[in-house]
Hints:
The protein has 3 helices and 24 strands. It has helices at about 1-20, 95, 200-205; strands at about 25-35, 35-40, 50, 55-60, 85-90, 100-105, 110-125, 130-140, 150-155, 160-165, 185, 220, 225-230, 235-240, 250, 255-260, 290, 295-300, 315-320, 325-330, 335-340, 345-350, 360, 370-375. The two termini are about 35 Å apart.
Amino acid sequence: MIKHFLAVTLSFSVIACAEAQSDHPFNVEVITAFDEPWALAFMPDGRMLVTEKKGALRIVTQDGEQSNAFRGLPDVDYGGQGGMGDVAVHPDFANNKLVYLSYAERGVGATRGAAVARGVLSESNNGGNLVDVEVIWRQYPKQFGYGHYGHRILFDDDGYLWISSGDRQKFTPAQDMQSNIGKILRLHDDGSVPEDNPYVDYLEQEPLVDDLGVYGEIWSLGHRNPLGIDLDLDGNLWNIEMGPAHGDELNRVKRATNYGYPLVSNGDHYDGREIPDHDTRPEFEAPAVWWKPAISPGDLMIYRGNLFREWRGDAFAAGLGSRAIVRIELDGDSAREVERYDMGARIRSIVEGPDGALWVLEDDRAGSEGRLLKLTPK
Ligand SMILES: [Ca+2]
Ligand SMILES: [Ca+2]
């Protein structure tokens, strides 16, 4: 019965899909569908790990064959924008099988916050277990509410773990050095703080009320809800963040740099109150690109492949509200939107596959599931 429902949904969607994308420079193949998918990551053998927001992790082949949900995962706090989030594999996954997951967790009372755990993927019987699970990072302090976890995770080419930590819709913590929320963070693979991080000596520069030490994790601050991070061809980090009303931003993420939220934004508060624009406070780093109207970015991918040869080095934003994939050309510190592809659905995640194809997850939609799409050149 469920299978039948899915088949009907897919066939309708394929028609809608074909119409929306007939003039795009890529073919769209529907691979499979998931229950509220959030993220995917390729393993070295070419299969993918996919997270579902309600708390599941599955393996899926490039043909769309899904494993059962893995057991032994952390308990996730599903609700609002929270649940199971991003997935990444350790740079030495082929040997250590370490998988990293970000997710929302409950704290004391009704507080909650993002966390990152890692564990060893142990496959058996069309699924398996995550074993030796340890939580290596937590948002501090936990907050009330269900929004703005951020929590994309990324390994760079030197093996550092980057975490984008959203402001939890609390505004001012993005400027608070005693909080790791509203920040981009740089950690070792075990969650410890690299000694060369910019603020490890912050306590000596500016004594704080309490020495909680989270400032050591911070690479940059003043971020709102950074839902995508990736590296360009030169290894520079970029982030894309959901702005307030019409202030989505693409930023080149620089060491010890303040991106201004909530003191400045080219958007304004949803209730109509103005936030001063970036040009009023030049001490804060202005975005490379900002959007009005908003695109509502859910993910960022910078293309390193050769299959779409002319796109090499370009950034791609997954558009939730804009129901599009947005292509952005990068040039040093500057960037500009060059093309927008209507996908006819909210796009949650976009990842480059091992052969250079683009793998795209739709966000869940009422009455259907989020599909996994494969994009290849026409
Ligand atoms: Ca900003
Ligand atoms: Ca403004």
